[in-house]
Amino acid sequence: MGLAVILIGIQFFQPLRNQSDEVPATHIEKVYSVPQNVNAILAQSCYDCHSNNTSYPWYSRIQPGAWYLAEHIKKGKEELNFSEFGEYSARKQRSKLRAMSGQIKDGEMPLSSYTLIHRNAILSEEDKQILMKWFGAMEDSIK
Amino acid sequence: MKNLTLSIIAVTMAFITVSCNQVSNKNEQSSNDTSDVSQEQTVSQPNGGDTIAAPGVSETPNGQQTTATEQEKKFSIAPIVTDYLSLKNALVSDNDKAAASAGKKLLATLNKVDLKAIPADKHKQYMEIADDAKEHAEHINENVGNIHHQREHLAVLGEGLKDLIELFGTTQTLYQNHCPMFNDGKGAVWFSENKEIKNPYYGSKMMTCGKVEKTITGK
Ligand SMILES: [Cu+2]
């Protein structure tokens, strides 16, 4: 009974949402020309946790999941934020591109805890190749 | 209902899943901060004789007017080099735990650097290298059990160190080595204190893979 009260109680404490209508000038799409197919994969599999605009699932309103999600997105953005990519130094951009490529190759990103629910965020072999190829080419092009 | 239960289970599981890259924001240095620091530096220059360079380097004896060139001599990347080398050596011996603690030590060293001792014209470049290096050091620290990932970070650290050496020189003689295989055959650089090749990217699997590219004499 006590637990039920707590569970209902915490539903009233919702964290701030990570949502924004406009794409900032520092967004990777604005700083570099991102091919359509790459962009579609990024939006589908990466932007929820690595940009200033998350498309929230219905259960994101249910506590304590909402807190977990907020914390998760906060950490994801600290690590890499596509909305702020243009603010990074050239060195950091290259570093991030290399890291993204490595994480995708090793299957470490997107996190399995995320794809467990977001089945459509799972990268196909083809998606991985497209991303890795583009990340690699970008890394070499930034001086 | 079945879906709801599933989702709740999934969310709960996600709670206990620890991911790579749980990195705090404390090292992030915005460009604003950087310009603040350089302003501060300009302001403090007239009485700058009392600034201490990197740890281990002593003050000028007379403590008087320090010119930019003198300051340049005072700033040394030696503590960074030392930590890099012990990290590199941990990975040569396939020791992920030792690498993790070496990463932690390197992060602490980078955080301790007296930014005021860095010549103004090299400040921005230093900051960019250091900010990036801190992230790599942190990830290496967090990735016990994933030595491959630690090595990926070492490769980028090596590139940063190369630029640091170009900027500030080294007091210790170092060998710049090249591993042709790492990073999907794109190759990777590493530095060592000895001429003998001991590859930190493959460890015991391919200990002697690589070549000395350059000897950098310490000054
Ligand atoms: Cu990492």
UniProtKB/TrEMBL annotation, chain A:
Alphabetical list of Pfam families matching this protein: Haem_bd (PF14376)
Domain spans labelled Haem-binding: 4-139
SMART domains recorded: Haem_bd
This protein's name: Haem-binding domain-containing protein
Organism: Pedobacter antarcticus
Lineage summary: Bacteria, Pseudomonadati, Bacteroidota, Sphingobacteriia, Sphingobacteriales
TrEMBL record, chain B:
Region (Disordered) residue spans: 25-72
Polar residues bias spans: 25-48, 59-69
Signal peptide: none
Location of the DUF3347 domain: 80-172
Entry superkingdom: Bacteria
Pfam families per UniProt: DUF3347
Protein name: DUF3347 domain-containing protein
Organism field: Pedobacter antarcticus 4BY
